[in-house]
């Protein structure tokens, strides 16, 4: 399946007094990877919401392997698990400059109709862009 990577430096404010990334920041890193994965395909959260579909996280799993520290250049690799239906699932690997795996993760998000607040199928234009990329 299609994958994307995004790299950035750990900021001081994301760390504890020992200079280690606070564990609660990793879901934000996954979100950064997911947003860039969609953007690379020409899909934006903003556009989806303007068209009446929101995409909340319904499941989040993280497996911490090694700590990231202040000023590390880390990379988030985001992979689509399978073609979406009412849900879309991503696997992630976060690693440092030495290519050491820091965190492995998984998220499942649901396509929700903003008017009814009920699950809905993946919008056709989103599914088409994903199919064209894989």
Structure, described:
With 134 residues, the protein is an alpha+beta fold. The protein has a single domain, classed as Roll (Thiol Ester Dehydrase, Chain A). It is 23% helix and 36% strand. The protein is built from three helices and eight strands; from the N terminus they run βααβββββββα. It has helices at residues 26-40, 45-50, 124-133, and strands spanning 3-9, 53-54, 57-64, 73-80, 87-95, 101-110, 112-113, 118-119. Strands 1-4-5-6-3 form a five-stranded antiparallel sheet, covered by helices on one side. A hairpin with a 5-residue loop joins strand 5 and strand 6. The longest helix has 15 residues, at 26-40. The protein starts with a strand and ends with a helix. It comes from Costertonia aggregata. Belongs to the 4-hydroxybenzoyl-CoA thioesterase family. This is Acyl-CoA thioesterase.
């Amino acid at each position: 399946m299609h994958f994307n990577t995004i790299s950035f430096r750990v900021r001081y404010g994301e760390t504890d007094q020992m200079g280690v990334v606070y564990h609660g920041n990793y879901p934000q890193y996954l979100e950064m990877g997911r947003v860039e994965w969609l953007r690379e395909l020409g899909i934006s959260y903003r556009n989806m919401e303007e068209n009446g579909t929101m995409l909340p996280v319904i499941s989040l799993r993280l497996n911490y392997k090694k700590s990231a520290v202040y000023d590390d250049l880390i990379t988030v690799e985001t992979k689509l698990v399978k073609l979406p239906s009412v849900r879309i699932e991503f696997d992630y690997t976060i690693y440092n400059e030495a290519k050491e795996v820091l965190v492995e993760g998984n998220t499942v998000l649901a396509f929700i109709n903003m008017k009814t607040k009920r699950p809905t199928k993946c919008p056709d234009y989103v599914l088409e862009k994903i199919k064209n990329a894989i």
